[in-house]
Structure formats: structure tokens, C-alpha cells
Design brief:
By secondary structure, this protein is an alpha/beta fold. It folds into two domains: about 140 residues, Aspartate Aminotransferase, domain 1; about 230 residues, 3-Layer(aba) Sandwich (Aspartate Aminotransferase, domain 2), CATH 3.40.640.10. It is about 40% helix and about 10% strand. The strands form three sheets. It has a seven-stranded mixed β-sheet, with helices on both faces. Strand 3, helix 4 and strand 4 form a beta-alpha-beta unit. Helix 5 packs parallel to helix 6. The longest helix has 23 residues. It is globular, with a radius of gyration of 21 Å.
């Protein structure tokens, strides 16, 4: 059976233009911190890749700290800034659970999933904070936050601003800014969402902002992130960003067209279907909806049996779908959020994928609703 992969927000297949430079880098022998010729060659690979990553994202090379994931980058940011953290109730668990572990403040969001600048200003005026962390694009719903406006508010109250940009990089424009024009102090990203292999991400961080390391060792990256430098990972991330950033406008237009058709398909499949936060701005690659009174596991299982890979929202923990904290925070009732489903596009996506959903979704919904009623 032909598979129709519509879960790129969870992980995207290795991009063909990433594969070759990554494999070549893997064949390079040498620890980048070693002084011999092989080590120096590996160090050059790493340094050149970091320079390209920085250039593509519009920051100096000194801002780039390579990590093994977006989750590590989020933890490095929140744990590294000493002081109280403020975040929202709809963040990715890497931010939300870390903030909770640190005793941070969790702010409610509007019904469309956004945090308004006025709400943030009111919170910080009542009680200052050291760091505000708000994602650029929600990983479940695809709702876009106005991080530039939120960062301006945070800075006006003396707080630094971090954004988890894992679902934003390569999909929407993101103006980080530097120097006197700085907008974002810390930015997390992940390679495997944009066609790099699993196991590489990055934290962009203003070097004037001191970070307390949460892991000790050799201090290879600014005395903040220890561990042997991952030259192949850096090369792969640079290649993936080169493709994603270079084709952002083209891909956004293609995904928006697919998304419009998919939303039409969903509404035609069931007249009770709810397009999540329909009036909010969305990233082009994520389509999220809820079908009331449906069993989510059954819905995903039937689609899977028909060759369609989709998800209930955020990637499952230990293979078990869980009630969405994002939809709870947005006020959706339990019978609606139980039928949540997310489709997400990437470099392999095309019209044939949407057509397959159109053929299979009505029956999947009927089956899931029958099971939910038992």
C-alpha cells in the first residue's frame, strides 16, 4: 500500500538535498577538538556549518549553540536564564513542563490560542520576570503567535524573550534581529522537522546573555553546552536550513493551497467538524481540526489502515494518545477535543495525499463515532 505521510510536524523524512552532505560528513574521521589533521578537518566542517546556519538565520555565528534536539535547546534556554520564567498554557511540553519544574508562571491564552501583548504587559506589570517564553507556532494547532510584539513587551519590563521556533523555521518568516534591533534573545529549533536527521537542533542565544550550564564537561560551546562537537549533525542542519529557508515562500504557497483543500475536505466529510482556531493566523503546513464525539484512537487507526499517517496533535508519549492540554487551555469541551486530528505537510506532500484523505476520512469518522458511542 502506498503511504500518505501527513505528519511532518512530528518528524519529516530526510531531505534528498541533505542526505549527500550528511553522508560525506559522516565519513570524515576526527574529533573536532583534536589537534591532529583529521581533527582540524572535522573542526573546519563544524565551523563552516555553524557559519552557514547563522547566515541563513540572520544572526552572528557566536549566537549558535548546537544541541541534540529542540527539547534540549528549550531546556538550555529556560534553565540557563537564572530567574523566574513566564510562559503560556499551550506550549510544547519541553517548555511547559520545564517552566513548571522551575516554579514558573503559566499564563492562560485566548480562545484562539494566542497570548495578547496587553495580557503579557498586565502580568509583567503586576509581577516582573526574568524570561518570557512563547512559541512562534503551536506544534498542535499551527496557530501563530505575534512573538515580535510579545518580545517588545517583555523587553519593556526588563525580561528576556525566548521562543520555541521548531514549527516556525522554514515555514514562516522569523525576524530574530541583533544588536540594537534585537527582537528575540533566545530561539530554539530542531533539524528533523525540516529534513535533517533526528538528533540535531540548535539554540540561538545572544552571547551577551550569560547562560548557566545544566550539564558539565569539556565546555566545548561557550562553556554552556559540553560534549564532542557534532560535525555531521551541523552539516546536516545547515543543509536542511539552506533548503527550508531558500524555498520558504514557494513551499508556503504550496502548503497553503493544500491546506485550503484539506480544510474543505474535512468540512465536507462531517458537517460537525470544527476547524481549530479558524480565525487565528496559522502556519501554512499544519491543518488541525476536531470532530465531535469521535474516538481519536479509532479515527487514527482507520486512517492508518488506509495508508494515511496523521496524528492527534503532539507526538504520542510511549505510543499512547493523550488528551490535549493545548485544546483544554483554549476551552474546547472534552467531546470535541477527543476527536482532534492534525495533518501536517512537508517536502514529500502533494495533492494525492489530500485526495486520499478525501476518500477515506468520511468512513473513518463514522467508524470512530460508532466506537465512541459504545
Amino acid at each position: 500500500m502506498v503511504r500518505h505521510y501527513l505528519d511532518h510536524a512530528a518528524t519529516s523524512p530526510l531531505h534528498p538535498q541533505v542526505r549527500e552532505p550528511y553522508l560525506q560528513a559522516l565519513e570524515s574521521v576526527g574529533n573536532p577538538s583534536a589537534l591532529h589533521s583529521s581533527g582540524r578537518r572535522a573542526r573546519t566542517l563544524f565551523a563552516d556549518a555553524i557559519d552557514e546556519i547563522a547566515q541563513l538565520l540572520g544572526v552572528p555565528s557566536s549566537w549558535v549553540i548546537l544541541t541534540c534536539s529542540g527539547t534540549e535547546a528549550d531546556n538550555l534556554a529556560l534553565r540557563g536564564v537564572n530567574g523566574e520564567v513566564v510562559t503560556t498554557a499551550t506550549e510544547h511540553p519541553a517548555v511547559l513542563e520545564t517552566a513548571q519544574a522551575l516554579g514558573g508562571r503559566i499564563l492562560p491564552v485566548s480562545a484562539d490560542g494566542t497570548l495578547t501583548p496587553d495580557a503579557l504587559a498586565q502580568e509583567l506589570a503586576a509581577r516582573p520576570a526574568s524570561l518570557v517564553s512563547v512559541h512562534a507556532v503551536n506544534n498542535e494547532t499551527g496557530v501563530v503567535q505575534d512573538v515580535s510584539a510579545l518580545a517588545e513587551v517583555a523587553h519593556s519590563y526588563g525580561a528576556r524573550f525566548h521562543t520555541d521556533a521548531v514549527q516556525a523555521i522554514g515555514h514562516i518568516p522569523l525576524d530574530i534581529g541583533v544588536g540594537t534591533q534585537r527582537q528575540l534573545d533566545l530561539v530554539s529549533l530542531s533539524g528533523h522537522k525540516i529534513g535533517a536527521p533526528v538528533g540535531v537542533g540548535a539554540l540561538l542565544c545572544d552571547p551577551d546573555l550569560p547562560l548557566t550550564p545544566h550539564m558539565t564537561g569539556g565546555g566545548q560551546q561557550r562553556q554552556v553546552r559540553s560534549g564532542t562537537l557534532d560535525a555531521p549533525g551541523a552539516v546536516a542542519l545547515a543543509a536542511a536550513l539552506r533548503v527550508a529557508v531558500g524555498s520558504l515562500a514557494e513551499n508556503a504557497a504550496r502548503y497553503e493551497k493544500l491546506a485550503r483543500e484539506l480544510r474543505r475536505v474535512i468540512c465536507e466529510a462531517d458537517d460537525r467538524a470544527v476547524l481549530t482556531a479558524a480565525d487565528a493566523p496559522h502556519a501554512p503546513h499544519i491543518v488541525h481540526s476536531c470532530v465531535p464525539d469521535c474516538n481519536q484512537d479509532a479515527l487514527l487507526f482507520v486512517l492508518d489502515s488506509q495508508g494515511i499517517d496523521a496524528s492527534g496533535g503532539s507526538a504520542c508519549q510511549a505510543g499512547v494518545t493523550e488528551d490535549s492540554h493545548v485544546l483544554r487551555a483554549m476551552g474546547y469541551p472534552v467531546n470535541v477535543r477527543r476527536g482532534a486530528i492534525r495533518f501536517s505537510f512537508g517536502h514529500t506532500s502533494g495533492e494525492e495525499d489530500v485526495s486520499r484523505v478525501a476518500n477515506c476520512l468520511p468512513e473513518a469518522i463514522r467508524a470512530a463515532r460508532r466506537i465512541e458511542s459504545l
